Amino acid sequence: MPMQIAKAQQGSGLKKAGLCLALLAASLAYSAAFAGVEVGQPPGPNPPSATPSGPAMANLPAGSLASSHSRRAHFGQERASPEASHIADWVVHSGDNQGMPFMIVDKVHAKVLMFNADGRLQAAAPALLGLARGDDSVPGIGERKMSTIRPEERTTPAGRFVASLAPDIHGEEMLWVDYDTAISLHRVVKGKPSEQRAQRLNSATTDDNRVSYGCINVPVNFYEKVVSPAFTGTNGIVYVLPETRSARDVFGSYDITDAPATVASSPAAPSAQ
């Protein structure tokens, strides 16, 4: 699918505003430590995976139901929040990731956790997120000009997204999370000097990690050594945890101790909003 996107007409992509196109001039002059663009415009009319989807248990291989019931996510030495642990365990137990690598974006704790298809944590990193707190995107925001997007509209939407690597119209690779609202995960960029994005990522507190137009900025090394290899040649699932309601409400998840009799009877994850 990324090949189809790369071949899409650039003119069509220019019609889509793209939420993080602000600071483009500064982004194009990035250094090796801050390679990337703030969220570039989608490169064409067809997203890598335009519509988030729920679990498809019928596609699981024979015998997977029994094996999934005995499984939980493996965090190693990483300390995850209760919500992140809950969702990771549920994903592995239910098979909601459908055999694909998956990522959890913990907005409350400004952290990204990358898992392989078996639910084993590969790495975790701090993240910069949308300036405004909230779990929904304003309708049509992906088509609007940056100058019209108010501070309170700059949210990182919560939900379950089928994500894929693809370049923006400038050829910069990024992980497209929610194509319709032009939300992607990419290398942190310089941005405006006043934003001090590098300092925000490296600070001990998460209070200063809200700065973007909605996109997820991660350290360059984490993107290049973890995210890009994990999604190369495959789609994956990105679970963006909510901050205004519970993860159970958003994903239809359950605690492993309260697991249903069969995986197939577990609630289907709703489409992202």
Characterise the protein shown here.
It is a single chain. This protein has 273 residues and is an alpha/beta fold. The protein has a single domain, classed as Beta Barrel (L,D-transpeptidase catalytic domain-like). The chain has 8 helices and 10 strands. The strands form 2 sheets. It has an 8-stranded mixed beta sheet, with helices on both faces. A hairpin with a 4-residue loop joins strand 1 and strand 2. The longest helix has 13 residues.
Provide the fold topology.
Blueprint lengths: L1 H6 L2 H5 L9 H5 L35 H6 L12 H13 L7 E5 L4 E5 L5 E6 L2 E2 L28 E9 L5 E6 L4 E5 L9 H6 L7 E3 L3 E3 L1 H12 L4 E5 L6 H5 L22
Parallel strand pairs: 1-10, 4-8, 7-9
Antiparallel strand pairs: 1-2, 2-3, 5-6, 5-10, 6-7
Oligomer: single chain
* Biggest sheet details: 8 strands, mixed
Radius of gyration: 18 Å
State the domain count: 1
CATH architecture: Beta Barrel
Beta content comes to: 15-25%
**Low-pLDDT residue intervals, each spanning 5 or more residues:** 1-69, 262-273
CATH C-level class is Mainly Beta
Mean pLDDT: 77
Short description, anyone?
With 273 residues, this protein is an alpha/beta fold.
Structural key phrases:
273 residues; two-stranded parallel sheet; 21% helix; disordered N terminus; L,D-transpeptidase catalytic domain-like; globular; alpha/beta; disordered C terminus
